[in-house]
């Protein structure tokens, strides 16, 4: 990078240190708590699936059953495993009996702890081995078929009908897409359960369900064989069911997941405690599954000015990087987000965009950065929009981005048609092919506008990170320091689903994941027993 922007490595190190302290502080808080979504995820990884007679998912049925009896603080694993051992049945059968009212988990005699723990470890190994097999299958297919070159061409389908999505996803792959993202139905992030089965009634997108994942994965594998390259599948494990959807994606071999607690806090008003706890477990699963996460910093620039708030994007990228590392997710799977959102009427706006993208590329050299297209300033003029997308594509290939979510000239008009998607892919392919090695040939003028802008953004990001380090992330979110959106630590959706872990808390999947990835095990005991600092004050 000697011929690139001159960014002070000591400043970058200071930013990482501050972000590390911010993330570690939150992680200590998280370590003594669980959520209903985490516990439902444990059930799913143990093989519990399906719905009761009223259509309620069995993981919800069992979790609510234990919550009503005051038994959830120690986790779902021990009561369910205990019943399975005592009755000689599977966790799935335990859930089915709870759903029919024929089994009360509080009334089952307790097995000894060693027996329950051993059974939990056995099921955790089986569940995680299944996820590992999917990761190996992905690697084999890529080795045999190959895949598109970075920046990956990323397109969306959003019909609301999974069977129509399959048709459009295959069409996109034939047109040249490398990643197909199935947009979720509007509002799914705010429902505290995962719908079941194949769905055809989504609004503005298709419900994320395990069956829908399976159908789309099967379709993209089929078209991958046809076009001779591996096609990656993306969905969303954000919202109130974040870790559950991460587990479902890992079990169905998804490749990319939008996974960012800060997005849910800021733009869906999900309680910050709830979603940050959920994020840790979801990223542990994604990391082990080899799934690339996408973070949501690009959305900050839809509510805040892209020029003035550029440093908040960088600061959040630093924080998200630290959160991911704490969950065992390596840089190669961190699709840290940013966006091409300067006003097209701004003089030298392209230079500012180039500075931001090159700065991110140098600071996070191993991350497959996810670059988002212009949306805020798209007007419905499709010809101007196509040019804006072309400039976006130019910045991406120049700065070697990892994932290119292609802009549509009909942005803000309607859900893209197949021909809109084709034109977007052709636009990117033309620019990427003709300018493939531009970044290797062009130097940035020392002290020039682009370099000064990057240095300015870095300095502001460091100052912001130091302030967040001093007051804590929760207080920073309450003050609206990210995206100009204020959120309360005790407000938002889902707070009632947060529980402090009991003295006998047991999550065999978290334990096994930490052992397999070399992460330290959580300490036992409550928040107060472990002497956490500053959270009540903050």
Automatic annotation (TrEMBL):
Matches recorded under SUPFAM superfamilies: Cobalamin (vitamin B12)-dependent enzymes
Entry-linked Gene3D superfamilies: D-Lysine 5,6-aminomutase alpha subunit (3.20.20.440)
Protein name: Lysine 5,6-aminomutase subunit alpha
Start and end residues of each D-Lysine 5,6-aminomutase alpha subunit domain: 5-510
Region feature (Disordered): 516-538
Domain of life according to the entry: Bacteria
